[in-house]
Amino acid sequence: MSPLVARCFVGCFVGCFVCIPAFACSYPDEGNLPLRRAVSKVKYLPDTEAWASAMHKQGAVVQYALLLDAPHRERGRCYWPLELRAEGKLWRRYYVSPDGKSVLREEGAAPQAATQPRAATAAAR
Fold it and tell me: Is the pLDDT of residue 45 over 90?
């Protein structure tokens, strides 16, 4: 193999690993507004408000976990998963576009454990 071909091969190989972050959703240049907007879009849905109110009456803490490191793609758009949890159990998962214009609800999914935060899974190893 010639040195030129070897350099091209190595460059392409390294380029594949450098480009992996490109698969994440693009983050709008608006400070933390996209994060607050994504949570608010779901938090103030009528069924979400009713569930959160019922959980608070039971003494449970309600959490809204926006998972920026686990993007979801559907119909050519990128979405951030937003998990709604209480007492460590996942109630529902939504997908919110970074611009906040589109919210999808995960349909037909069986109840499952909430996704562990990355720091918690790394600490367990």
Answer: yes
